[in-house]
Amino acid sequence: MSIEVKAPMPGNIIEILVKEGDRVEADDELLILEAMKMENPIYAPEAGTVKEIKVKVKDTVESDQVLMILE
Question: Using one digit for the tens of pLDDT, what is the confidence trace for 18-30?
């Protein structure tokens, strides 16, 4: 079953902390989203493997945009 990790707010991706194929646990930091001049870590909602990363550093994202997919 795939788990979509979505942006909670609009902003810019400033750092990606995992790569495709990495195993993550619930609450591991996946990436850093800069919004309103603050760095907001985006956490894994549950344990899984990073299947696909849909953004790159410096990408601008919208609220609810899919950032990565865990499996």
Answer: 999 999 999 999 9
